[in-house]
Protein 1
Amino acid sequence: DTGVSQDPRHKITKRGQNVTFRCDPISEHNRLYWYRQTLGQGPEFLTYFQNEAQLEKSRLLSDRFSAERPKGSFSTLEIQRTEQGDSAMYLCASSPRPRRATDTQYFGPGTRLTVL
Amino acid sequence: SQQGEEDPQALSIQEGENATMNCSYKTSINNLQWYRQNSGRGLVHLILIRSNEREKHSGRLRVTLDTSKKSSSLLITASRAADTASYFCATDEDDYKLSFGAGTTVTVRA
């Protein structure tokens, strides 16, 4: 068990370009989450999946953002027409299906996006 | 919006001293978790305390929870240089979403 992995770790792009990030959760974890973290702040929830179903999306997730988890394993987060305000750390987390209330979420190392 | 709020924002202590940080939140919770983040890295889960628990220990960590005051504290005893990091409390909204505060940055001086 190698934990949650994310790729790439860093991405520098020009405004207007599209970017895609990948997250591989801990195997057999049903739930997968995406968060965004800007400098000096805590992570903010973006969206989450229960297996392949995307069950909740934050208002932070504009229509330029799309996330998928096609086979209930890895997930991708795509940002189209990037803006400078998209510059942030994008964190992925996974958890087993909780038996009660919220369970521990295990975070990956994050993808740091810089939009020039 | 972020529910949790950590206090202080920053803390500088000498190696071997204890570090205490507090977290206040606004709505009722099922549990509260503390995470650590080293500079530019992902979050590491430290401890989870459920709403029906008042105190929990894990190694050098001690967490308290007072649901009547909607507050929690994290105590790190006998701090080490490796404890230098940002510490976040996270509360659960619904049964899937964690809401984080802005964190407490702890610096342990050798």
Protein 2
Amino acid sequence: QVQLQESGPGLVKASGTLSLTCDVSGVSISSSSWWVWVRQSPGKGLEWIGEVFHRGTTNYNPSLESRVSISVDRSTNQFSLKVTSVTAADTAMYYCARVRTDVRGRMISYYIDTWGRGALATVSS
Amino acid sequence: QSVLTQPPSVSAAPGQKVAISCSGSSSNIGNNYVSWYQHFPGTAPRLLIYEDNKRPSGIPDRFSGSKSGTSATLGITGLQTGDEADYYCGTWDGSLSAGVFGGGTKVTVL
């Protein structure tokens, strides 16, 4: 079955760059899927960060777009997240996941069917 | 401030039912399908409902989804202590060209 696993440094210094990788197994990342990053800061709800298609096309949360970059590596079946100029507000549990999306007439079907277990990233001063 | 609006919390006794609302606009719920997720903090969220009212295999029929206009609702019947979790609605927002979630609703079983 499809499995995703996040990895990366758990501690990042303020003003630095947070980097996480998602290892995808059980399916080729080149399948017709988008791959997404979602985070949850302490005491807050889920926040959609951005997504990447296997060909490299991306969409980002407008509120994070200037600091976020998501890329895919088809040779290793992984995709990655980079967040620059981090502050304490970027401390969160970061989840990678697979998106299922389709267009039905004029409506878009968009949902996340498989999630990783999450990786905690803490920004230290 | 989330794009989709959910009540912070709902509660009911075991065996009873709860309904969680999710309010949006024509750029998201009004013109796209809604999904719902169950989340126990520290674990991976789980897909409960997709395309407004469809359940993935393995999700009990105690969970149901519906939508009218720019609002959606998740219903849980036969409430169990194991249902105590946070629940989120989600969809695509055409104006933002981004996925969006509600702020989450904490379900408490009294």
Protein 3
Amino acid sequence: GQQLNQSPQSMFIQEGEDVSMNCTSSSIFNTWLWYKQDPGEGPVLLIALYKAGELTSNGRLTAQFGITRKDSFLNISASIPSDVGIYFCAGDSTDKLIFGTGTRLQVFP
Amino acid sequence: DSGVTQTPKHLITATGQRVTLRCSPRSGDLSVYWYQQSLDQGLQFLIQYYNGEERAKGNILERFSAQQFPDLHSELNLSSLELGDSALYFCASSVVAGWGDTQYFGPGTRLTVL
């Protein structure tokens, strides 16, 4: 199945650091979504973006819908231990949701 | 607890067999989605139902089928199972049908095909 290019694949950071991850696609999307998945659980929606250039925040999380509609990034500021997990981007393309390959985040105290 | 229930939690079966996974959405949610998560394919959207009707189709194989019943619960049927079908299958539900509407994921059914 199709997957979006998401980078980095994994990150090991110290508590308090900022984190940035992004997703790119060869296709244009109508909606970009960012999810977090904790071990043994289903993904949880963090942020939804609906139009090109849109910048949306949710607490320490900020995400942007790229101008070209082919990319998106997610920033996490001042990371804390509970930020550990796998982060997925997803794009809506003609009634089909396509997920990124995931970024595994580890936060060390 | 998201309010979405999935049964069974674990399922072990043999190649060639057929299984049915069940999902009960959150109370009031009309839309149900099915996803497959495996190590090699990642998270894949399979199919969406809204108020009993198929709404969107993703990477669902012809050997797989789903339906949503009048009480809004949904079942995913997997037949002629192959080793590669081993994966975590998630169901999610939302109030309406848009992708941006918050989807609440169930705990998943882990399918192992031997």
Protein 4
Amino acid sequence: DSGVTQTPKHLITATGQRVTLRCSPRSGDLSVYWYQQSLDQGLQFLIQYYNGEERAKGNILERFSAQQFPDLHSELNLSSLELGDSALYFCASSVNSQETQYFGPGTRLLVL
Amino acid sequence: DQQVKQNSPSLSVQEGRISILNCDYTNSMFDYFLWYKKYPAEGPTFLISISSIKDKNEDGRFTVFLNKSAKHLSLHIVPSQPGDSAVYFCAASAGSSNTGKLIFGQGTTLQVKP
């Protein structure tokens, strides 16, 4: 158990819909990261927040957005969902940008 | 543009023998490298890391070697155990970017046969 929690574990929805994925970092970690793993792909970095502020952006679609709240939990919002958005979404956290990232169990999203 | 590559999708070894997983990178700005292990239906689990100022780091059965001139790193597992069967990802980051953004390879599936 990494100490990072993600909800929900599974999500099935339809094209065009909007979903919110939630992540609670390890106690004491200020940095939260979101990664996407599509079928047969490695993990792709989406976005990083540090203490409530966006720190880095990767190949995140404009239909996707994220935020980190004062209690340090983070949410990833995916809108206008397409079939190709079906993937595993992982959240990771670390004390700061230079420290090891610890991953949550992931949310498996299926868009039908 | 795949900056971190794991060219072997799979590897099969006998229990007790050495497992060697390889990873190549292209970005010379990378200065921190990590290996993660992933079981099905779980998130990646941190295994071992190495900074670019070192060429070797050891933790129990796991050793990571870094060859900066060749832009190559490898993970050695000795002795291999059936419980080591999983997907192994190497990842890299550039500390100078002041972000923790990790670039991952595609992963290598290791099977350790009893």
